[in-house]
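Notes to self after the Tuesday call (sharing in case useful).
The group wants a holo model before anyone commits to mutagenesis around the pocket. I volunteered. Ligand is heme C. Logging inputs and output together so the record is complete.
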Amino acid sequence: MRFKVFAAGLGAGLFASALFLAGPASAAEEIETAELLIKLLQAGRSVVAGHQDLINDASKGDKGFTPNYLADRIVQKFKEQTKIDLSKPADTPQYTLLLTLLESGKEVVAEAQPVINKQGVAFKGFLPAVWGRRTGEKFGQKTGIRLKLTAQEYRFPGNKPDEFELEVLKMFADPNYPKGKGYGKTTTMAGRPVFRLMAPEYAGSACLKCHGEPKGERDITGMKKEGIKEGGLAGAISLVIPVR
Ligand code: HEC
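Result:
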């Protein structure tokens, strides 16, 4: 493997900030932006996950899982993790971009209201990964920043890893790779300079009913389980940000 650039610590709090200094100075802001965007998407995914039982409740119509409800909780979670309060204008350089991502996530929940509030249906296909995918797509259309979920054994065709992502996923899957550590690299995409950052995602117990064992058995969504063990690598969030 030819990756020599900085590895960005994510998830397990392994912030390798010193390593960032080894990278080109122009990329420093992009690195921080990338990390914050991934954290915000992760916060949203966990808010959706935390409300999965509510969303899947067949007995309830109106669930109150509205765009503003979602946003309030994401803002709260994000503040706990980063000390950045998105509820008031800040001088954080990334503020506008973060708000755009939050806004994209709200739009996804707004569009899904009829599905979420459907009475008499338990599983509605509204999942953290689906929310994350749609949010990433909207965000990409607005900003040109690519933000997606991916995995070696992907379910959704659009989540298929590209060459770079596949190589990093294999690296994350290596038992000797430090758990929770993200990986970043300045490279080019379609001839343009970009900064790419990937953060590994591990399967907690809540993920196993769909992604766990036995491999090949159908889950609640009707898709085949991947056979991942608790704590095993489930995939990654991948971000591509143009570098000025
Ligand atoms: C109810 C079943 C279910 C649960 C629970 C679930 N997932 Fe998924 N997951 C899916 C489905 C379905 C997709 C495909 C989503 C789409 O259409 O983009 C997916 C997609 C993904 C992807 C993107 C790659 C791909 O397969 O397309 C990752 C990464 C992922 N899930 C990780 C997790 C993690 C980590 C958890 C626990 C925090 C989790 N999932 C919980 C069903 C589930």
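Two things stood out.
Residues 17-242 form one domain.
Residues 49, 127, 129-130, 133, 149-151, 154-156, 159, 201, 203-204, 206-207, 209-211, 219-221, 223, 234-235 surround heme C (CB under 6 Å).
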